[in-house]
Amino acid sequence: MTLQKFEKFLTSFGPLIGFLLTAAGIIISTSNFSKEQKSKSALEFKRDFWSKQSDIYLKTSQAIGTICAEINKSDPAEFNSEKFNNSKEVFESLYWGEMNFVQDSIVISDMKSFDQYIKDFNPNITDVDYRQTLIRLGNKIILTCRNSYMNSFNNLQMESFNGNATATLIQLDSVKPASLPK
Amino acid sequence: MKYLPVILFLLVSASSTQAQYTKEKISNILSGDTEKSWSVNGINVSRPEKVFSFNKNNTVVIEETSGKIRKENWSISSNDNIRWFLKAGSITYELIISYDKKGQQFVKLTHGESANSASGYYEMKLTKKN
């Protein structure tokens, strides 16, 4: 009697149960896939941001490098004002524009000071303290940029590792039912 | 090739002598042997301060355009021996020593409410008073 009831139940609701199980499987897989995609998108965004950040740091360091190389010339006659002014323009454009995009407060604060120095720089002044202060400040900004870049690189590596680990777990989770022995 | 200016700069700066402004040098620039007076000009805004007279005993007399005279204490500080800060009374300024086109030394004081904020930011140019 009980067996008959069970058979009847299976005949009536079997297709529905099968449909529900299939639907649940699809929903879980879609959800896992969506999570994985979100994680990948976030990582790609961060990679893109760090890549732009390093590009800005490199451009800033190049501009400062050229400015300081000119300032370091002790003979005013050797001073190349065209090179200095071009790099000064690049630096100022980065300081007022792109550098604010990466929002690195330590670098920006030092750049603000550097900007004040180069704004009025007089190449005819041979005062060593005056020139070396500017060069040391430039050096400090380059090193801060380098350290920030290295930190970003380490963060990227950590994020990549965590991202891969998450993706691997999701993949393992999604293949688990199929790989289980029957 | 694009790294060349940076490498060149690092090599040059590493080999150059580490001359720099010190607290003593800056104090001497500001106060001279005993006292030195500086005319104040607001760069981006007009400022009430008209004259700063720095004394070797770390007092500063600030004369305002309204005729008001204040006597405060002043001090110099730095975290890295590169960027220097002047505290006059309760206000801290970043102090930048520079030269105009004629080769005359002047002092620029900048003040902002925070390091990266433009709000309340102003600059003053201090030129030696005759």
Outline the structure in words.
- The complex is a heterodimer of chains A (182) and B (130).
- The radius of gyration of chain A is 31 Å and the shape is rod-shaped.
- The model of chain A is unreliable at 167-182 (pLDDT under 50).
- Chain A contains four helices and no strands.
- Helices cover 87% and strands 0% of the residues of chain A.
- Chain B has helices at 4-15, 23-31; strands spanning 35-42, 49-55, 59-64, 69-77, 84-88, 91-99, 105-111, 122-128.
- In chain B, strand 2 and strand 3 (59-64) form a beta hairpin.
- The interface between A and B is medium-sized, with 36 and 33 residues.
Counting H and I runs of at least 4 residues, what is the number of helices of chain A?
4
Distance between the termini of chain B: 51 Å
- Largest protein-protein interface: A-B, 36 and 33 residues
Residue fraction in strands of chain B: 35-45%
Order of strands side by side in the largest beta sheet of chain B? 1-2-3-4-5-6-7-8
Order of helices and strands of chain B: HHEEEEEEEE
Indicate the mean pLDDT of chain A.
Answer: 82
The low-confidence parts of chain B are: none
The biggest beta sheet of chain B reads: 8 strands, antiparallel, barrel
Mean pLDDT of chain B: 86
Number of strands of chain A: 0
Which class of secondary structure composition applies to the elements of chain A?
mainly alpha
The assembly state of the depicted protein chains is heterodimer
| Structural Rg of chain B | 17 Å
Q: Any idea what the radius of gyration of chain A is?
A: 31 Å
What is the overall shape of chain B?
globular
Largest sheet of chain A: none
